[in-house]
Amino acid sequence: MALRLFNTLAREKQDFVPLKDGHVGIYACGPTVYDNIHVGNARPLVVFDVLVRLLRQQYPSVTYVRNITDVDDKINQRAADRAISIDQLCEETIERFHADAEALYVKAPDVEPRATHHIAEMIAMIEALIAKGHAYEAEGHVLFAIGTMDDYGKLSNRTLEMMRAGARVEVAPYKRDAGDFVLWKPSDDNAPGWDSPWGRGRPGWHIECSAMSAVYLDKEFDIHAGGLDLIFPHHENEIAQSCCAHGTKAMAHYWVHNGYVTVDGEKMSKSLGNFTTVRDALEKHRGEAVRYALLNAHYRAPLDYSDGSVTEAKQALDRLYRAAGDVSAAEVADADFLAALSDDLNTPLALSVLHRLAKQANQGDRAAAASLRASANLLGLLTQDEASWVRGEAQEGALSDDEIDGLIEERQKARAARDFARADEIRDTLSAAGIALLDGADGTSWERQS
Ligand SMILES: [Zn+2]
User: Does residue 86 belong to any structural domain of this protein?
Assistant: First the structure.
């Protein structure tokens, strides 16, 4: 099935053709690790995880690189506010990030480079930009001179004039052009810094991704992914740095951007304070239901998030799990499903195919059930068997499956010994923990209420 992707650079849907036969290189901008991620940050993780799963199915070899930005002024500030070391802040934020991603069934990328491990490559790239006349040093800073690149602004479709007008009112005096951006900046004793030809300092954000993508993919590679808000300035500047340093016409050939997660129509963001952290979402909802909710709109469209949207996703998953039952996954996904996904990742259409297959499965069509499971798996859904889905996931600190089974056994013994007070007490304990007991002909089964 030929994959088509909307390429921000071309402003249209295009057939995807990799640069090298049989191999795809994809880079996505990862988190700046100063705080826990929110649901808006989780959307690109899930969407590009689906894209990578689809690519792996279609190409023999895929290299997925998603970086970690572990040097940033927001990190310095947060570590100071919390009176902990930058290392400690980064380590605990990365650990939580990995746990959040895993809970949403997002597979780890092939490479997850950290910016601080690649300072030497960034310095080399900045030196190349200076040597080629695209960058200049001023007061310990190194700046990229946007006027030296003919087609600067081509990704975001902005002219130099628009970008100058958009630059902050207070332009640093050492900038030759208001739109010039920082490649390197000086560090005082309190900020992390590395020795460089321009003194002790640290890299700007944009140069990190240019350097790391070249190390792990190539000077030119296939797909660069990220959120819509990264098109300008971040991705525009990545292109400027990479193309000018390497003397290439392109950095990535396809630029893929996901739309915003909104709350009551407004962009979910840290600054507006209308965000739900993934951690908080996972306390109320199953990870798979949050994932489903994040795939319920086309990735380029806004996606309105609410507890209600995840509850509906959970109910949709209940229906799919019931329909798939204990049937194992087919070898291949459904053709209509693949066609929907291959058409610029049309996940709402792909999900509707799953429900059509579920309907057929409910009418006794076991091939449809097997196809349903294979197709859903490609979206990272229906990851478990029906019985464990019905039982639910144990929350942190809650009763484990074994503990619940143990209490049920004890209750049965109490009933057999006619100790009804103890039996009722156990039922109340389980009920308080959100466990419903279903006494049936062949014993007692249970499920977690969520
Ligand atoms: Zn980036």
Answer: yes
